[in-house]
Design goal:
This protein is an alpha/beta fold. It has a domain at 3-67 and 102-233 and 365-447: L-arginine/glycine Amidinotransferase, Chain A (5-stranded Propeller). Helix content is 35%, strand content 17%. The protein has helices spanning 26-30, 38-54, 70-75, 82-92, 94-100, 136-139, 142-152, 217-226, 241-244, 272-285, 302-308, 329-332, 335-346, 360-363, 380-385, 394-407, 420-436, 444-447; strands at residues 3-10, 59-62, 112-115, 125-129, 159-162, 179-182, 191-196, 234-238, 255-258, 261-265, 291-295, 314-317, 323-328, 351-357, 373-379. A three-stranded mixed β-sheet has the order 2-1-15, sandwiched between helices. Strands 3-4-5 form a three-stranded mixed β-sheet, with helices on one face. It has a three-stranded mixed β-sheet with strand order 6-7-8, sandwiched between helices. Strand 9 and strand 10 form a beta hairpin. Helix 2 packs antiparallel against helix 16 and helix 4 packs across helix 5.
């Protein structure tokens, strides 16, 4: 049976703004308080989805969240009508209003961790929504994320959904941004690669000194248990604390993998040789031939990698066995990174082509091509069981671009977030979107 890696990209929400909320994310902090363009952001993301679909890749779309999150503000003590809640939050606690308006759910690499049926004990595709408890504005996402994923992957015969891990520091879970799967074929048993920044209980593991390590070893282990993964199909690796302190807040900012290939920076991990040997041995037992591409610090520094988001790219396997790298425009704008990529593709190695996409609106807030997508490996039967409304087609692309043009603003500043009309615009847009994507009632305003 044929199997596929389906990329479900996050649709940028109507409240896309530069709130500078993510400490440790250099781009997010450096662009704080600038005016954003939600319409352009959404259209840039849709253009990438369409392009990958036209290249022959399976492509889906994941809906944004309701923002402002009025229910979250009510839990923090603001009361009255929805408009009064927003007005009082703007007056008394503007940072909380900004956080409640964050469109960070667009980066669906943080939505969940996904294990394909070929790896799990019960032969179903397993989803665990990420608790994202390191940042308040992201910690409020997982209830809606769970409902949206449940509406997309509803058939319990094929799909299993787990609630987010306990929302405490010891189980900080950032989803697929710290998870990669290696396999010979998407339908065959593979090796799942979990990268953590620190251990909550074992002091033998060093921790970063400046920025927080968002993913714990204990969270990764818990997800592996929930998904029914076998020990011979899992590898755990620690991210280098020094690169976290240089702005590498997730593993997908310093490494990306697909199929049998890991593309990573020389400084990405601790005990790199041991990790690579374990990946090679375990994938070999499952019929795969693990291969790695190390980018030396002498050619691309960690700073270059963070500024260009070289590794926050999509590494895609093509039908002829070659690999395609989808990178943001910022890679072409960095002389050292672009020179490295030109040499990489001309060498006749594993990565044969690089395609550049303009994702400036997302990039300025700290998310590149890989942040915008959640990878789900599905066989033909499972793909047929996915809600068809969320699978990208040419007609759906046309409908969604019209929807964005109709509902999104082309400029949004912090002061605009205090406008109660923005909430009404967002709810009207999302109510229409759930009908377009055939999701049913998934948002709090539709349920309560």
């Amino acid at each position: 049976m044929k199997s596929y890696e389906v990329n479900f990209d996050g649709l940028v929400g109507p409240t896309h703004n530069y709130g500078g909320l993510s400490y440790g994310n250099v781009a997010s902090q450096s662009n704080s308080q600038q005016s954003s363009n939600p319409k352009e952001a959404a259209l840039q993301g849709l253009a990438k989805m369409k392009a990958l679909m036209e290249m022959g890749f399976q492509q889906g779309v994941l809906a944004p969240q309701e923002r402002p999150d009025v229910a979250a503000l009510r839990r923090l003590g603001f009361s009255g009508s929805d408009a009064q809640v927003i007005e009082r939050a703007a007056k008394d606690a503007m940072p909380l209003l900004v956080a409640s308006c964050s469109a960070s759910s667009m980066w669906v690499a943080n939505a969940a961790t996904v294990s394909p049926s070929a790896d799990t004990a019960d032969g179903r595709v397993h989803f665990t929504a990420a608790n994202l408890n390191c940042k308040y504005h992201r910690s409020i996402e997982h209830p809606t994320t769970s409902r949206v994923l449940g509406a997309m992957f509803a058939d319990q015969k094929h799909f299993a959904h787990h609630a987010a891990l306990p929302a405490v520091a010891q189980f900080g879970d950032e989803g697929a941004a710290n998870h990669t799967r290696f396999c010979r074929d998407y339908g065959q048993a593979g090796v799942e690669f979990f990268v953590f920044g620190r251990s909550a209980f074992d002091t033998r593991y060093p921790a970063p000194q400046k920025y927080p390590a968002r993913q714990t070893l204990e969270a990764s282990q818990a997800v592996a248990r929930l998904h029914g993964l076998s020990d011979d199909g899992v590898v755990y690796a620690q991210q280098n604390p020094s690169v976290i302190d240089q702005g590498v807040f997730h593993n997908d900012v310093i490494a990306v993998g697909n199929g049998e290939v890991l593309f990573y920076h020389e400084d990405a991990f601790l005990e790199t040789d041991k990790m690579l040997a374990e990946l090679q041995a375990k994938l070999g037992k499952r019929g795969g031939n693990f291969q790695s591409i190390c980018v030396p610090r002498s050619q691309v520094t960690v700073e270059d990698a963070v500024r260009s988001y070289l590794f926050n790219s999509q590494l895609l396997s093509r039908a002829d066995g070659s690999m395609l790298l989808i990178v943001p425009e910022e890679c072409r704008g960095n002389e050292r990174v672009w020179q490295y990529l030109q040499g990489l593709t001309s060498s006749g190695g594993l990565i044969r082509e690089v395609k550049v996409f303009d994702l400036k609106q997302s990039m300025q807030n700290g998310g590149g091509p890989a942040c915008l997508r959640l990878r789900v490996a599905l066989n033909q039967t499972e793909l047929a069981a996915v809600n068809p409304g969320v699978i990208m087609t040419a007609p759906l692309y046309g409908t969604l671009t019209q929807w964005v043009d109709k509902h999104y603003r082309d400029r949004l500043s912090e002061n605009d977030l205090a406008d109660p009309q923005l909430l009404l615009e967002c709810r009207t847009a999302l109510d229409e979107l759930t009908q377009i994507l055939k999701l049913g009632a998934v948002y709090p305003f539709q349920i309560n």
